[in-house]
Amino acid sequence: MRKLVSACLLILLFTPILVAQPVPTLRLSDIKNDTSLIGLALWRITAQPPFPNDTLAVSTFHTFGGGQESGRDSVYWARFDVLNDTPYPQRRIFDSPAQNDVVHFYISPDRFRTVRHERVGRFVSYWEVAYRYSNYLLPVDFSPGQTLSFLIRIDNRYALFSDPNVRFITEQSLKDSFWESYSSNFNGAYLSVLVLGAVLAIFLFVAFLFITTRDSLYLYYGLYLGGVALYFTLKTDSLFFMGYWVDGFPITVSLINEPLQLIYTALYIRFSMGLLRIREHDPHLDRFLNISWKGLIDYAFLVLLVSAVIWKREFEQNLLIFDRVVLLVFNVAMLVRILQKNRSPLLTYFLIGNVFFITGVVLSTVTSLGLIDREVYATLSPINFFQIGVLCEIMCFSFALGYNVRLLERERNNNQRAYIDQLRVNQDISEKANRELTEKLDERTREVMAMSEAMQVQKEAHLRSEFEFQLSEMEMQALRAQMNPHFIFNSLNTIRYFVLNNENDKASDYLGKFARLLRMVLQNSSENTIPLSEELEALRLYLEIEARRFGESFGYEIRVPEDFDTDGLQVPPLLLQPFAENAIWHGLLHSPNPDKQLTVRVSEEKDFCLFVIEDNGIGRQKARQMKSRSAHVKKSFGMQITSKRVELFNKNFSSQIQIAVNDVVGPDGEVAGTSVEIRYQLPE
After folding, report:
1. How is residue 355 annotated by DSSP?
2. What's the CA gap between 255 and 300, in Å, rounded?
3. Cβ atoms within 10 A of the Cβ of 280, count?
4. Dihedral of alpha carbons 393, 396, 398, 401, sign
5. Span 389-394, mean pLDDT?
6. Which pTM value belongs to this model?
């Protein structure tokens, strides 16, 4: 697609060339050595695309004059022809300056009717060029008597200025310059590969240690080594396979160069925290470094993003200086703090490694900036100083890890010996304790035998008491079960009375209230105690039913103090009703008093609750004299059940019930009714 676009552009731009004046023609016989095209070709400078229609018009080209410069916003153009005036095939090589990003060569054998497009330059993939050791060289073959037309476009976006000094060299000159260049940098190129191999070997070993131990210390050290190995790979010469493969992505290499260094520096900080156990020796520094190494990784990705947007050489140079100064100050400050607080046995290895690392960084930085004369390090490149420093640091860290393993092994052996000694002591203590336990066991056995006999006696007594309690419970339940039929029988008699007297409305109302009362009675019949409020409600329903039955021939009243907690006090069910029933049937029913009244009072004394059921009936004496059979049956059955229930309740519960029956004496000294006092002891 790129070649098609280039061809279309060239067809448009080269149309004026077909009728233009001849351009300078270079004869190969006249070019014996390296020759610069600055003075031989015609030149012009245009703005960045889109190009004007007369871009390639011969009249717009001129010889190169002093003071002409092409920046990022402009493009260099050069035109010339080359004639092979020898009877032999020839090869010449175009050599572009390293400062140029991309140099486009448009080559045509027929005055640009057909065009071949080639590219060289700093950011051209090594996979596209003819020589694997350089992306600045373009070889061109000439047949005998052949004339080739050339158009060169120098286009820079990364570098601030373009360099038009494209050279035209012979194969022999290329070979001589190649061997001269590599002989001077031979040691540096192979040293880079040697360091990379050593780092990869240590990386593989540390990765194996992490897989076998799952220790996070080896994880971060392995990641640090991996980052260093990847960075060194970016700096490997293209003569070697890894360097050649990486150089296939020159723009990517340029972008990730600085972020990659920041990332493995962050991993180095994290590894140092674990190696020196900084958390144990200096918690404040540990928190600061924990924030720092994470922040440095975030900063690395920010640098990558900004570099991709800006992508200018001066920006990356300034960023390089800034990062190196900040990281150098950070490392020095961290070392000073560690020297003050840390007492790790691995501190010596760490400090020596950092000295090597800082030395390598400083030498690499000053040499890359040209602050040291090249003759001092003639056979090395700036990156070699950094590689040597990092390798020495890695070796020191590896020694520290080895010594750490030795310390852990020694600590493990000491722990094992201490454990064995402790086992022996424990065995002696155990044997002694066994003897003492045997003696105590014999003594204890005798005591247990004696206690067992005593406990057996107590158990029998407890079982007997439990049996008596359960028997009393069953007896109380039986008595409550007898109370229910008794009460139901009396209530049904009342309903029958209404029905026989054809009082249907009263019977219906009476039946509804009786149903409510019956439900309460049945619900409470299985309970030992119920709230006093429910007992009073059942009593109220009963009195209302009985008053209705007897044609409102007597009145009743239930008095309870307003501040009395009737919900919180638990009483036996149907405690008050039998006494109220007895007062109605045996006191009020036979009384000639026109104002018959039944009063139930509830009051709270110091240690007990007092229930008083009082009527103004005929009194106990007259009631005994009456020979009414029904009255006799009611008293003998209802009151007997109630007395038995009270007796069993007092036996099984801490709360006690006392009942006293007295005559009510009027002002004239005559008996004016009956009063029943029930004292219910409040539970503690």
Report:
1. H
2. 11
3. 11
4. negative
5. 89
6. 0.57
